[in-house]
Design a protein that fits this description.
Strand order of the largest sheet: 1-2
Number of strands: 2
Mean pLDDT: 84
Shape: extended
Strand content: 5-15%
Largest sheet: 2 strands, antiparallel
Order of helices and strands: HHHHHEE
Length: 119
């Protein structure tokens, strides 16, 4: 029975669409194929998801991972680092409000946020 699934990662869906055309699969077929490969890897004796979780938690060095585990760790690490952590949105909103926030513009110049005027 077919079921609908939402993916928050547009890049994954775009990559799957491209690969599905190359492999002559439907989009759903390509994502299912990748999911089966991932499941097989996780179930194999050469892949330890718990070890990846320990590295992500800072409890173990990345040198303890196999090449396949490092690939999964890297993907998960990049995903986590690209999303704000707990309290970061609040912290940076406070900085912006105070006018003490700084960042880079499109050309790489440092720019400072102006504190909003009290009206």
């Amino acid at each position: 029975m077919a079921k609908s699934v939402k993916f928050a990662d547009d890049t994954l869906v775009d990559d799957a669409r491209t690969e599905s055309e190359i492999q002559s699969r439907s989009l759903a077929g390509q994502i299912t194929h990748w999911a089966r490969i991932g499941r097989a890897i996780e179930r194999s004796g050469h892949f330890d998801h718990a070890r990846i979780s320990r590295v992500l938690a800072g409890e173990l060095e990345t040198t303890a991972l196999t090449a396949g585990e490092k690939a999964v760790w890297s993907e998960q690490f990049l995903t986590r680092m690209s999303e704000p952590g707990p309290g970061e949105e609040t912290h940076f909103a406070g900085l912006r409000k105070s006018g003490k926030a700084a960042g880079l513009d499109e050309s790489g110049k440092v720019v400072y946020a102006d504190a909003p005027s009290e009206e």
